[in-house]
Design goal:
Radius of gyration: 50 Å
Number of strands: 0
Helix content: over 70%
Number of domains: 2
Largest sheet: none
Structural class: mainly alpha
Strand content: under 5%
């Protein structure tokens, strides 16, 4: 019976040792988990700060782009006004030429030569020829009648 009691005590002792080992390893895991949690917290904080910095930079870039867009719109508006003014000037100039030389173009459409037109309008042949030659060189939509 003593052997039996000794074996029971040895088994209980072994169970106690295993319990202590398990408890010791479990207590070592807690600091490891705490260290991991702390590391995760620190990295999250760092990421949050970096995100705030990125958000500020994005706002700055957005403001810069908005400013450039506004400047480009202004520049475009000015250029459109310049082109519009240029078109009006060209149109007025062409209308002036059309009115001034209307007789020459009318006579040319009737089939008269530059010499005949010059004689009929009491102008120089060179002048009439020059006007007719310029009218030929102009594109149709811009041309003098």
């Amino acid at each position: 019976m003593l052997n039996y009691l000794t074996e029971i005590l040895l088994v209980l002792n072994l169970i106690g040792v295993v319990y202590l080992i398990v408890r010791k390893s479990a207590s070592q895991e807690v600091p490891v988990k705490q260290d991991l949690n702390l590391e995760i917290f620190v990295k999250q904080k760092k990421l949050s700060r970096e995100m705030v910095v990125l958000k500020d930079k994005l706002k700055q870039y957005h403001a810069i782009i908005q400013n450039e867009v506004h400047q480009l719109k202004e520049e475009r508006r000015k250029l459109e006004k310049m082109v519009e003014g240029s078109v009006k000037t060209n149109t007025m100039h062409q209308l002036f030429l059309n009115d001034r030389f209307e007789q020459i173009f009318t006579l040319q459409k009737q089939g008269l030569s530059a010499e005949q037109i010059a004689k009929k309008l009491d102008k120089g042949t060179g002048e009439v020829s020059f006007i007719l030659e310029l009218a030929k060189q102009m594109p149709k939509e811009e041309g003098i009648r």
